[in-house]
């Protein structure tokens, strides 16, 4: 899994673009990398899933953890470019509403 992170201090946004599979083998390192970017306050965190081809339950769990932690710190998490197959995983687990996916 490749991750590209951009921090925009001016607009208080952190964008993480993921490329690969979001599964049990990737979650620990990815969770640590993204967690290091979490700032207290009104920040927006964007996770771009355009190049994620597979998402398992551990990947879902990591995203739920990140959303809760970011919200606890006063920020927002947005998922961008969610493919149809990944969107189906969110829908089947009823997490589409939790993440605000329409």
From TrEMBL:
InterPro entries linked: Anti-sigma_ant (IPR003658), STAS_dom (IPR002645), STAS_dom_sf (IPR036513)
GO terms, molecular function: anti-sigma factor antagonist activity
Membrane-spanning intervals of the chain: none
Pfam families listed in its UniProt record: STAS
SUPFAM superfamilies: SpoIIaa-like
Residue ranges constituting the STAS domain according to the UniProt record: 3-102
Protein family according to the UniProt entry: Belongs to the anti-sigma-factor antagonist family.
Designated name of the protein: Anti-sigma factor antagonist
Organism: Candidatus Ozemobacter sibiricus
Lineage of the species this protein comes from: Bacteria, Candidatus Ozemobacteria, Candidatus Ozemobacterales, Candidatus Ozemobacteraceae, Candidatus Ozemobacter
């Amino acid at each position: 899994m490749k991750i590209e992170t951009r921090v925009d201090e001016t607009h208080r946004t952190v964008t993480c673009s993921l490329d690969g599979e979001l599964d049990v083998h990737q979650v620990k390192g990815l969770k640590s990398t993204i967690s290091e970017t979490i700032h207290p306050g009104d920040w927006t965190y964007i996770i771009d899933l355009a190049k994620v081809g597979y998402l398992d339950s551990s990947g879902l769990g990591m995203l739920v953890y990140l959303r809760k932690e970011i919200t606890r710190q006063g920020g927002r998490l947005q998922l961008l470019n969610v493919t149809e197959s990944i969107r189906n995983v969110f829908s089947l687990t009823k997490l589409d509403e939790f993440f605000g996916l329409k």
